[in-house]
Every structure is written in C-alpha cells, then in structure tokens.
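User: Good morning. I'm curious how PLZ would be positioned relative to this chain. Could you predict the structure with it bound?
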Amino acid sequence: MSSGPHIEQVRKLLTQIPGPKSQELIERRAEAVSASLGMAIPVVVQKAGGGVIVDVDGNSIIDMGAGIAVVNVGNSADRVVKNVQEQVEAFTHTCFMIAPYMGYIQVCEALNRLTPGSHKKKSVLFNSGAEAVENAVKISRKFTKRQAVVVFEHGYHGRTNLTMAMTAKNMPYKDGFGPFAPEVYRMPMSYPYRCDSCSGPCQESVLDTVLHKIEKEIGAGNVACIVIEPILGESGFIVPCKGFLPGLAKFCKENGILFVADEVQTGFARTGAMFACEDEGVVPDLITTAKGIAGGLPLAGVTGRADVMDSIHASGLGGTFGGSPIACAAALGAIATIEEDSLVERARVLGLIMRQSLEAMKKKYPIIGDVRGRGSMQALELVIPGSKEPNPAALSSVITYCQQNGVLILSAGTYGNVIRLLPPLVMPEHLLKEALEILEQGLAQA
Ligand code: PLZ
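Assistant: Good morning! Here's the predicted structure, ligand included:
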C-alpha cells in the first residue's frame, strides 16, 4: 500500500498569515480556551498530509514540525486511516485490563522486536510520553527497591508532577507548579557546543563528573534509574559526545541501576535509526516511547527487560485508556508504514539534505553558532555574532519570517534560541528544499 499524501504537496499562500478565517477562530479560541496553552503558528488547521498543513483560509504551509515529531509517517497516513476506520467500526473500547484485544498484544510484540537489544522484552502501553516516563520510574523503583532517580540538565520528560521534577527548565514548564516530587537528582549534561571542558570528541570529563557526583551525593546503591534522552529534544537537539551514553549505561550495569532511554521524541525512525540509542549500540534496560508510535493518535509505551517488566505485582500498572484499541490500530499502521516504506533510510536522506544546507548557511550567517542533530532531527543554535551568547530575538524573527512565508518551524532550547527541524519523513524533497530556502531568507534578514 502506498502512503502517498492525500493532498497537493505545495506551498501556497492565498492570504496573509493568519488569514481572516483563522483570525476569527483564534479570537474564539481566546474566549473559550485557557490562556495557558501556547500556539506556535496562528493558523487554524483544515487538513494535513505529506509535508503540508492546509489552514481554513486555504493556505498550504510546509510542515517542518510534524506535530513535534509525531506524524513521522505523515498526517492521515493511508495505513493509519484504514486501520483506525476498521477498528472504530469493530469496537472503540473495552479497557485492556477488563477484556483484552489483539491490537495491544501486537503493538507490544512490535515494540519488543524493534527496540534495541535481542534479549527477552515485554511492554506496557499508556497514553502520553509523560505517563510512560512516570511508569518507567515506578517500574525501576519497584524492581530495584531503591528510590533515587537521576536526570540531566536541559532534560525534558513531561508536565505531570513527577516528570516536572525530572524536567530541567523552569519557564514555562514548572514555574509556580511545585512542590515537586522528591528523590530526583539532576546531573551535568554533555552539551558539546557549550561545554568548556570539551575540546575534543570525548566527553570523559563530564561523564567523570556525573559518576563522581552520583557516588558522592546520592550513593550509587540508592539509585533506581538514570533517565536520559539519547538526543535532548526540547532543549534543542543536544547530541551528547560519543561515549557519554555508553559510559552511563556501563555505570548502570556495574551498579544495579536501570538505564532508561527516553525515546519519546527520538524514536520511530526520526534520527535515521528506529531508535537513537542504536547509534552507539546502547541497549537500555527500559525505553519509553510515544509521539511517533501511532501516526498522531495518543499512545505511549514502556518496553524493557522481561525480568524487570514482570517484577511488578499483578494489577500494579494500568489505566483506563492506556493502549486504546484505536491507538493500537493506528500504531500498527504507522509501524507498517515505517518498515514497508523504509522511513528509517528516508530519515537519513532528508537529514542529509537538511544538514548540508544548514552547514552551508552556517558559513554565511554568523548568527548560527551551531548546527547539530542526527537524521531528520536537525537544529540551529542562534547566537550573537562573535560570541556564544544566546540570540532569542533572532530566533523569533526567523520563525515569524518563515510563518509569513508559509513554512512552519519550531523553536526549542534552554535559552530559547534553537530552530529545530522535524519534517514528516514522507515529505517530498522539493518541499523540504523550498522550506530550507525560506529558512535561509529568514536568517539573512535576521
Ligand atoms: N519525553 C523526550 O520530548 C514531549 C512537549 C510539548 P507527552 N515533548 C513535547 C509540550 O510543550 O508539552 C516529551 C519528550 C520527551 C517526554 C515527553 C512528554 O510527552 O506526550 O507530551 O506527555
């Protein structure tokens, strides 16, 4: 089956952004929806597919965000739509804990097969990335009979109480929302561009610092798990130095600590591998997934060593909607799309196009301090020329320029100065190149 996009793959502007219909709905939004929610682009969506989003005014916008790395297979991908339609007609919900169904089992089988490591694995499904991370911590604590959770500077793990404690950045995620969950310890992160001690390919000094701090400040014997994103997502695609992740994984193994890879953003072909951990051959004890798993439907998972996953008492984990049959049907469609349409390779091809173009831009525009990422997860960190001082003003100017010209680009970064590119992996190359041209114009005028 082809997963060809169902709408015309063009950038086309019929009105200014936002157009009059979007404008009117955005006013209604302001009346009805809590002001707490952000909005990356001021348009209201009518339909989306392939590499574009079409708004209610008929503007066709190139989608460089994929709903934050969710629609890796594109919006309304054929196999996702077909599976969901069939499932909705068959039944919508029984609750897997009440009466099980095949889709849930099949998604767990797929997760066990696709995640790193050939050891025996088992999975459990939830609704959101934060819920998956919370459950990975619950499982780790119960299995190890220890309490401490180690996380990292710049890390992002969600907005629930425990995951807020695990997330590094105060604004906008945590400010005023405390008190936060205890026994969460934050360690320095390997951040090659901003790490003074890092002059070469090896990040030994940061790794050493982390291991030393764990020993001295927490005690390795008190640590249940180390939770880390293999490439940091929300903080702007920080790729740790080679050796950092394997070093942590080794320390975990030596100390009875579970290594938890939070692949909520990096998973499902995004980085040019099914999972980002594969890059350095790291095999996590537990891996959390969400976002790209189900082509846009809410689904998340924790997958890991069978002995760990089975160490929880019966009925110890669960939730009413976790692993909804509709979301599972979507996931099976999304996973089939990734595998049958070779989207892992496609992520590398698109990634290369982005990387080459971004490197060329870096030579021309001194506001670009760093180009980084892997596969179709590429970012630019913007700085004041001649320094490493973050340049959030340039970021908003570039993003506004792109929006006005029909390209949706997301921001990120602890310092609010990173442009992140996350196209759907089914985006036609001509659209990607066009988006990069607009991005370059935006950088030129900034
Ligand atoms: N872990 C690594 O990237 C979600 C957050 C968007 P949920 N990132 C996007 C926002 O501003 O809320 C994320 C992630 C990593 C966990 C999560 C949390 O996933 O599905 O948003 O709960």
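DSSP finds 13 helices and 15 strands in the chain. The CA atoms of residues 392 and 417 lie 4 Å apart.
Let me know if you'd like a different ligand tried.
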